[in-house]
Amino acid sequence: MADTSTDHGRFALPTKNLPAPQVRDLPEPPTQTWKIVGPGMVGAGVGLASGEFILWPYISSQVGLVFLWGALVGVVIQWFLNMEIERYTLATGETALTGFNRYGKHWGLFFAIMTYFANMWPGWATSSASMLTYLFGGGDPRWIAIGILASIGLILTFAPVVYVMLERLIFVKILAVGLLVVLALIFAIRAKTYDALGHAVTHPEFPVDQLGFALMMGAIAYAGAGGGQNLVQSNWIRDKGFAQGIHVPRLTSPVTGEPEADPTANGYVFTPNDENLARWRRWWKFANIEQAATFVAITVLTIAFTSMLAHATLFGNPDVKNNISFLKIEGVTLQTLVGGWFGYLFWAIGAFSLFAAAAGIVDYTSRLTADMIKARYLRTSKVSESKLYFGLVWGLVAFGIIVLLAGLTQPLVLLVISACTAGTMMFVYSGLLWWMNSRALPKAIRITPLRTAVLGFAFLAFGFLAVFTIIDQLKKL
């Protein structure tokens, strides 16, 4: 086949900060693509955490469903962000953070630090611990949360291939949440909530006076993924073997896993001829469908359901306060409406979901940071990415335990801190993604005008929310 690469442009990855990538043909997509579905599901499953079980239900308990449109906006924006993150990795095998490093020496370090800061506060572990105390009728959430953090460290350490373990854990979580959805639709959600949903569609509101910018920004930023979790789509699709990611070794346990391959090559680009571009179109179509059918669909349905359930049980209740205790009230109300068994099931599935989310968050935070350190600062070192990863895992676990022992145990406060940091990150990397994908890649696979417009909207929206959140918080000092 004739090389028509001159018709489509070539890769233009800067080589000032990192070595030039190797040239390899784009691999053929598998004939049975269902076998590689997973990264979008993992993204949705890890994201079914603070936003779905805490922030959005709390908002619905306070103002009803009139702000539910914010969740839809947040998820759709994140789908576009995820696909631009995946675009770069599909084409090069490098993570988005590595791509950022090609344009600025320490951009990857900036995002790694921001992700680590956003997720070092153990809000998810303490949320899971609190729901376990509701389930069993007592206990100290602080010590339970410490046990949860330690168990997460052990699970991630002894999993032979970390991504495979995480995918299985998230699959069980999604099945459990699906069961809760079906039972709630049958037994708990009443006509008044469906009426409220219809009113929210025709009369949406922006209830900043009741909620404040910090909570609203956190809810939009964490509608689905948010912050560093969007960036880690690069790492997850590499571990699943998408496109050029198939050439990159997977993270394995230093205790039980196989030795990893040599990861010294930074990236693998392809000659943009007709054959490779035909493969690219199939990979790009599959990646978009995989994200839409898993990440977007699961996230939107779950946020809508948990918000409707909170509305059915809590809206108008003056006892609901701005802390996680509202989940106890919700469970007790479900016991009154449906039966004692349903309240216990709600707490059990909520506790497991938040535990799985905490495991995913520790994983992706450590995964992002380990990849960045190895690719940018320790390329020639004998220290493997896997060993860096597990050191960072236990660093997060240790810091979380210190925070809990110091007495900072209010989950909603910890989650708002994390969410505001995530929103600020999204403001910055929305602009960087556009810059990178409109310059580094061949013309035939660059970001399109429509997707450029969405990234521009994300940049402005998250920038606006970040500024007003800071102003809002300064007024409270």
From TrEMBL:
Q: Indicate, by first and last residue, each region the UniProt record lists as having compositional bias (Basic and acidic residues).
A: 1-10
User: Where are the residues of the annotated region Disordered?
Assistant: 1-24
Q: Which residues cross the membrane?
A: 58-81, 107-124, 144-163, 170-191, 211-232, 292-315, 344-366, 387-406, 412-436, 448-471
Alphabetically list the UniProt keywords: Membrane, Transmembrane, Transmembrane helix
Name-wise, this protein is MFS family permease
What is the source species?
Kribbella sandramycini
Lineage at the top is: Bacteria, Bacillati, Actinomycetota, Actinomycetes, Propionibacteriales
